[in-house]
Amino acid sequence: MTPRRPIFVGLLAAVLVTIGFVVLVRWGQSAGHAGASETEGTLRASVGNLAPAIVGTTLDGKAFDLASAAGKPIVINFWGPSCVPCRDEFPVLAAKAAQHAADGLTVVGVLTDDPVEPAREFAAQNGGTWPTVIDPAKAIKEAYRVAGRPQTYFVDRGGIVRAIQIGELTDADFERSYAKISQ
Fold it and tell me: pTM (2 decimals)?
């Protein structure tokens, strides 16, 4: 029994060291993001903070930069056509985009976890007139801390995130959150 004990202790020590290392790395990463400035390019989305940049190519191949919507209320929706709740909320977004167009509302989609062609077809068939940015490397998804689809961010005219909706938007959800960014 004695020869097995040193092996067990050695394995246990290796596991504990590995766990400790992972915890330290994760802690260091989160601490680095918590204090990072926008200019360092590590801004993360949360209520009360500036919305991270969104720069990329849209479903129709055009360049997009969220900065072009500065001064307007913005709704950013992470979605994909294979997501059933995303498909179900799409008519709400289309109706609200039209209803609040006079307020300067800018709706921006971010395609995540789905291929481009089905998203392009779905948006065209279902009134998705707003730009949808493609996020193949998931960098935008990461910056916005997207937990699942759909997930929607309401950004005020000053670029501050005022509300986050995780899950399907209803008409009432939209109006409640939109009231926080439309002044």
Answer: 0.77
